[in-house]
Design brief:
It is a single chain. The chain is an alpha/beta fold. It has 10 helices and 22 strands. A 5-stranded parallel beta sheet has the order 3-2-1-7-22, with helices on one face. A 5-stranded parallel beta sheet has the order 9-20-10-11-16, covered by helices on one side. α1 packs parallel to α8, α8 (about 355-375) crosses α9 (about 380-390) and α8 packs parallel to α10. The protein starts with 10 loop residues before the first strand and ends in a 5-residue tail after the last helix.
């Protein structure tokens, strides 16, 4: 990309995964110029398992249902299952991009190395090939699952890997495997190990609530969405009791009892792990206390002799090309998770929440595009919102007291977030999905 090629008022979108595509559609609908770059060779972001560094694995599926996860105006195909496979999500994203004419505008194989603000209030992007371009606005939509959080296990001398390197259950054949971490990916991978490894165990530092993917024959998010609206404390009590009826006492399976109320950690949608624990295919262990050679000792004094430890310990929310502009790598400093402290600086898809993210992405994308449009067409309204950003400190917890962990720093409740986005958009006169 040659220097100076960006038109006046141009917005640089970095990343062509779901967030970047939501941003591109919103800008196009507002007839705003933009430059869209993607470092990989095709659209799809992390959902393309062939992209170097993608966290996808063969058995990965969406953890929210197709019913509540598609973009407005472009639902997921009827023939998709309730919880689509990762290759189906990739096909959906590429079909979405084609349908809205976004594909041709993406410059693939283009890596942004650095973004810096200039003296005139614009932003200069430097690319891996040494070229630069200047833009009025920047939207970081590069995703949050590219920088693995690797923990150290002193004394262990077997093979240790992060789950980002994992692809197939075949990797577990003939192995004694310990999966560390109990997020949705960790539980999925532990189930793969239960079916394929010679011996499998999973280590969790705390107890969790396990939510089945279907309740009364329907996806659990559809069931929850169609149910009566209740205060959070009541919802926690009612659904907590329902889960106890469905799952029983999970401590009988070797799991720890949850040390928090329902919904106070990121939801774990998995009923297969309980199945494998109940059949003896995998062993539940608490947190790791120490290791020596290939023997791992846990906080309850039990041990496991394993030759492979797979770390399902999550990711850091890095924005490597502009971390200093976006702040904390675990919780970027963005108003409503999208608007930066500096004019023209935005982020999309940099949110941790408890429901399908695509709806939030497109709402926020529409708000960002509306604010960019206001800069030229309604400058007084643009300035009004800039002042609003500096003053507004909304509570988006929805009444949840999230556990104290890096992942849950800045966590937002989806319903509280949607309600507040609609309020802000109405106040600003913006039309959003």
């Amino acid at each position: 990309m040659a220097p100076g090629t960006a038109p006046t008022g141009d917005t640089l979108i970095v990343g062509a995964g779901p967030a970047g595509l939501a941003a591109a559609r919103a800008l196009r609908e507002h007839d705003l110029p933009y430059t869209h770059v993607e470092r990989h060779e095709a659209i799809g972001g992390l959902w393309d398992i062939d992209n170097p560094g993608s966290p996808m694995y063969d058995s990965a599926h969406f953890i929210s249902s197709k019913t509540l996860s598609g973009f407005t105006g472009f639902p997921m195909p009827d023939e998709y299952p309730d919880y689509p496979h990762h290759r189906q999500i990739l096909a959906y994203l590429r079909a979405f991009a084609d349908h809205y004419g976004l594909t041709e505008a993406v410059r693939t194989g283009t890596t942004v190395e650095r973004i810096v603000p200039t003296q005139d209030g614009t932003y200069e992007a430097t690319y891996a090939d040494g070229t630069t371009s200047t833009h009025t606005n920047v939207i970081a939509a590069s995703g949050v699952q590219w920088s693995p959080n690797v923990v150290d296990i002193p004394g262990y001398d077997g093979e240790i890997r992060h789950s980002v390197t994992y692809r197939s259950p075949d990797e577990f054949k003939g192995r004694r495997v310990l999966v560390v971490g109990a997020g949705n990916s960790g539980c999925d991978i532990a189930c793969d190990a239960a079916r394929s490894a010679d011996h499998a165990a999973i280590s969790m530092r705390r107890g969790y609530w396990f939510i089945p993917k279907h309740i009364f024959g329907m996806p659990v998010d559809v069931f929850a969405e169609n149910g009566p609206s209740m205060p959070m404390a009541v919802e926690q009590a009612v659904f907590g009791r329902l889960l106890r009826v469905i799952n029983g006492d999970v401590t009988r399976l070797g799991l720890q009892a949850p040390d928090h109320k329902l919904f106070e950690t990121h939801p774990i949608l998995n009923d297969q792990l309980l199945h494998h624990l109940g059949h003896g295919d995998i062993t539940a262990r608490p947190g790791i206390a120490s290791a020596s050679g290939t023997e791992v000792t846990f906080t309850d004094g039990t041990t496991e002799d394993v030759d492979l430890i797979l770390l399902a310990t999550g990711y850091r929310h890095t924005i490597p090309f502009a971390q200093d502009l976006y702040g904390d790598e675990q919780h970027p400093e963005l108003y409503l998770t999208a608007f930066g402290a500096m004019p023209g600086l935005f982020g999309l898809g940099l949110v941790e929440t408890n429901s399908g993210a695509y709806g939030l992405m497109e709402k926020l994308g529409a708000m960002v595009a509306s604010h960019i449009w206001d800069r030229e067409h309604r400058p007084e309204q643009w300035e009004r919102f800039e002042r609003h950003i500096a003053q507004d400190k909304p509570d988006l917890s929805g009444g949840l007291n999230m556990v104290d962990s890096p992942r849950h720093k800045g966590y937002v409740d989806s319903h509280a977030m949607v309600k507040y986005l609609d309020y802000v958009a109405k106040r600003m006169g913006w039309d959003i999905p």
